[in-house]
Design brief:
Distance between the termini of chain B: 23 Å
Helix content of chain B: 25-40%
Radius of gyration of chain B: 14 Å
Order of helices and strands of chain B: EHEHEHEHEH
Radius of gyration of chain A: 81 Å
Mean pLDDT of chain B: 85
Number of helices of chain A: 13
Low-confidence stretches of chain A: none
Oligomer: heterodimer
Structural class of chain A: alpha+beta
Helix content of chain A: 40-55%
Low-confidence stretches of chain B: none
Largest interface: A-B, 25 and 20 residues
Strand order of the largest sheet of chain A: 2-1-5-4-3
Distance between the termini of chain A: 80 Å
Order of helices and strands of chain A: HHHEEHEEEHEHEEEHHHHEHEEHEEHEE
Strand content of chain A: 15-25%
């Protein structure tokens, strides 16, 4: 639901609450007032009508009483009463004269419909304005019985002889001596009752007053009925209440079954119910009008509130909608979109905050882009490194394979050298020997010497080949690294060298407790080669002194072999460890020049290094280190 | 008793002659049969090829076998000798220039009785040949003929 719709609805609902409350209260109030007013009106109408009724009855009774006191009437009546003979012409004339001179005058007044004079003794109607009444006995009628002693109003009753509702007033007529002469009975014209009931009702459209007797019969014609009087019974709530001698007000359905407000009143003197009713619809019409007005007002206010709500919502949501638009723009990555500045209210603050946020977002995105670019570059670099690594691995694998192939070739080469190079040498030596043996006597001294040189060189070549093979084997053989007791090993070699050089005086000094880890065979070759060298180069000395020990060099344990031999020139120290490199003449010190090259290779394979110190004539010291393994 | 025969399997003519000379120098007069390649040696031993129909009862007392041979190499020849019941007990001495460990190990693994490296120095060579023949031809008690 949109905010505008929501706010409109809220405003409308909020406006409806007070409107409803006020409307309800005022409606209730006016209803109470109007009802009360109606009730008051009805009650006063009843009171008024009862008063009218009483007055009318009293007037009727008084008029009849006044009439009965006419002296001439009395006199004529006394005279007429003296002779009672209807056949007597004088008597008839006398009656006529009473009717014409007196009674008719009263009848003409319209107040009474019929006047009769009754004989007190037996209630015989002596004279009546209605000739049919004459000569009839009405001795049981209340107006006669009670009328003998004073004026008496007999309440409305159904007159059997007349077959009409009737009300008759009786009053005595007395002579000068106060003797009862006759009873004067006057049937009252009930039209007056109807007039009283009808009086004033024309002011309202449905106001209706009527009288009902104690037998539930209408006595007067109701406003909306015809020929009801004494012919129709009525049992409405109001009538029943009044017949129970209660006065009051009620909301009920009337004789026509129309909802009315009715005031009922019991008139005990007349034994009649006086009912005044008005249709609720008419009585309460002002309420309905008020209700309508309140409702209309409420609707109007609600609509106005809704309009106001819509307007304020529109006012509020317009910047919000702009914000939404801006958000969508930014959502579409249009970060350059700027929001027009709004007012100084919270929405304005929000808009400005939004603008700042967008700016920061833009900044962030820019730095993010930079970051992303950097990350991409880095990834690319990593990718490059990975690629290089892969190619490096590939190259290493290739190179390893190449090395393996080279090693195989070298092996094959060494094998060939070992086999094939030696065979011809053996031939040269063998056949030279054969020549010397078989033809020695035919050769001169010079030839003998030459052939000896051939054999000598051939055998040297054989040794060279053997040493070369050794060197290559040292490089190729698999190492088995184990702890090695160097002291014991050096002692064994020293003993062997002493044995091989029985004519030499050599003093070996071997430091006790020398240990190392490495390949036992290869370490043996090192020690042998180096000690053998020392033995060789100390040969000019009367006593060769050779020392094998251990020292500390640059924080590393280093072994050394020191001798008091011929030494060497440090200028050639670099050449010492090269293959076939010799610093001395073969005639002085025989050798192939491979021994130290072999030593260096073995030491390198053990992760160590080898170097030498020396001086010509001052002996030499060879140092070597081995990779220390924990 | 027929004199003891030596089978020399050697392809180098110079070495063959030197060996013959060394044998002579060592005063070994036993009959020397020379096979110049591995196949010929096998033909001689099993009476096949150019040696078809040979009396196989006459087997060499000792075989001097070079490793590097044309056609069938020395180690293969040794393997076949040891695989055949007629020849499996024959003493075989490897006489070669190689001092490679792998060759020495392989030879003994295949059942060589001895391994001698031919020295370059002829005097040493004579010494070696003489001593090996002294051992195999004189001192050593040969295995019973045939197989079991």
């Amino acid at each position: 639901m949109r905010l505008t719709a929501k706010l409109s609805l809220v405003f409308m609902l909020l406006s409806m609450i007070p409107t409803s409350v006020v409307g309800y209260l005022s409606f209730r109030n006016s209803r109470l007032i109007i009802e009360q007013e109606t009730i008051n009106h009805l009650l006063s109408t009843n009171i008024h009508k009862q008063a009218e009724l009483d007055r009318w009855v009293q007037d009727s009774a008084r008029d009849l009483e006044i009439f009965s006191k006419r002296p001439d009437l009395r006199d004529q009546l006394v005279a007429a009463m003296a002779s009672h003979d209807p056949t007597d012409a004088q008597h008839v004339a006398m009656h006529r004269s009473i009717i014409e001179d007196h009674l008719s005058q009263l009848i003409e007044g319209g107040e009474f419909l019929e006047l009769s004079l009754l004989r007190p003794v037996d209630g015989l109607v002596l004279i009546s304005t209605d000739q049919k009444e004459e000569e009839k006995y009405r001795e049981n009628q209340a107006y006669f019985v009670r009328g003998k002693s004073g004026t008496y109003v007999q309440n409305v009753y159904y007159s059997m002889p007349l077959d009409l509702p009737a009300m008759t007033v009786g009053t005595p007529i007395r002579d000068k001596k106060e003797n009862l002469v006759a009873v004067l009975a006057g049937r009252v014209n009930l039209a007056a009752l109807s007039r009283i009931m009808e009086h004033g009702r024309h002011l309202r459209q449905t106001e209706d007053s009527y009288l009902v007797n104690s037998f539930n019969f209408f006595v007067t014609e109701p406003r909306f009925g015809k020929d009801y009087a004494l012919k129709r019974a009525i049992h409405t709530e109001g009538v029943e209440a009044a017949l129970a001698h209660r006065d009051g007000i009620g909301f009920y359905a009337n004789y026509r079954d129309v909802p009315v407000i009715g005031a009922y009143h019991w008139v005990p003197e007349r034994e009649l119910c006086l009912i005044t009713e008005i249709n609720q619809l008419e009585a309460l019409a002002p309420i309905y009008a008020v209700q309508k007005k309140i409702f209309g007002l409420g609707v109007g206010v609600a609509l106005l509130a809704a309009l106001l709500g819509w307007l304020s919502a529109f006012t509020i949501t317009r910047p919000v909608r702009r914000l939404v638009g801006a958000t969508e723009e930014i959502g579409r990555s249009n970060l350059d979109y700027t929001l027009a500045a709004s007012g100084r209210d919270e929405i304005g603050d929000l808009s400005r905050a939004f603008g700042r946020m967008a700016q920061r977002l833009k900044d962030t995105l820019v730095s993010r882009d930079e970051l992303a670019r950097e990350v991409a570059e880095r990834e690319q670099a990593e990718e490059e490194i990975r690629r290089l690594n892969e190619s490096l691995e590939q190259r290493v694998l290739e190179r390893t394979a190449q090395l393996e192939i080279a090693n195989k070739e070298l092996e094959a080469f060494s094998y060939s050298v070992s086999h094939d190079l030696r065979a011809p040498l053996r031939g040269i030596d063998g056949w030279s020997a054969a020549l010397l043996e078989d033809y020695g006597d035919k050769l001169d001294e010079q030839a003998h010497q030459y052939l000896s040189r051939v054999r000598e060189q051939t055998q040297h070549m054989g040794r060279l080949i053997d040493d070369l093979l050794k060197l290559s084997r040292v490089t190729r053989s698999e190492m088995q690294v184990i702890p090695v007791d160097l002291e014991a090993m050096a002692n064994r070699i020293a003993a062997r060298l002493q044995e091989e050089n029985p004519h030499r005086r050599i003093k070996f000094t071997i430091q006790p407790g020398l240990n190392a880890t490495g390949d036992k065979d290869l370490l043996g070759i090192i020690l042998f080669n180096m000690l053998d060298n020392s033995v060789k180069f100390t040969s000019p000395r009367p006593e060769g002194r050779i020392e094998f020990g251990q020292t500390e060099e640059d924080g590393r344990r280093a072994f050394f072999i020191r001798d008091n031999g011929v030494g060497f020139d440090m200028a050639y120290a670099q050449k010492l460890f090269g293959a076939f490199q010799r610093l001395h003449k073969s005639s002085e010190f025989p050798g192939t020049g491979i021994g130290l090259a072999t030593v260096q290779r073995i030491i390198h394979r053990h992760g160590g290094c080898v170097w030498a110190n020396g001086q010509v004539g001052q002996g030499a010291t060879f140092y070597f280190t081995l990779k220390e393994t924990a | 008793m027929k004199s003891k025969t030596i089978l020399l399997v050697e392809d180098n003519p110079s070495d063959i002659d030197l060996t013959k000379r060394a044998l002579a120098k060592g005063r070994i007069a036993n009959e020397l049969v020379v096979a110049e390649d591995g196949q010929e040696a096998l033909d001689f031993l099993f009476g096949t090829g150019s040696h078809a129909g040979r009396d196989l009862a006459l087997m060499p007392t000792v075989i001097l076998l070079d490793l590097k041979l044309p056609k069938v190499d020395g180690l293969e020849v040794l393997k076949r000798i040891r695989a055949d019941k007629r020849t499996k007990r024959l003493p075989v001495v490897i006489l070669t220039s190689s001092r490679e460990e792998q060759d020495i190990a392989a030879s003994y693994d295949l059942g060589a009785n001895s391994y001698i490296r031919k020295p370059v120095d002829f005097s040493q060579f004579v010494e070696a040949v003489a001593s090996l023949n002294l051992y195999w031809l004189v001192l050593n008690e040969p295995p019973p003929k045939g197989g079991c």
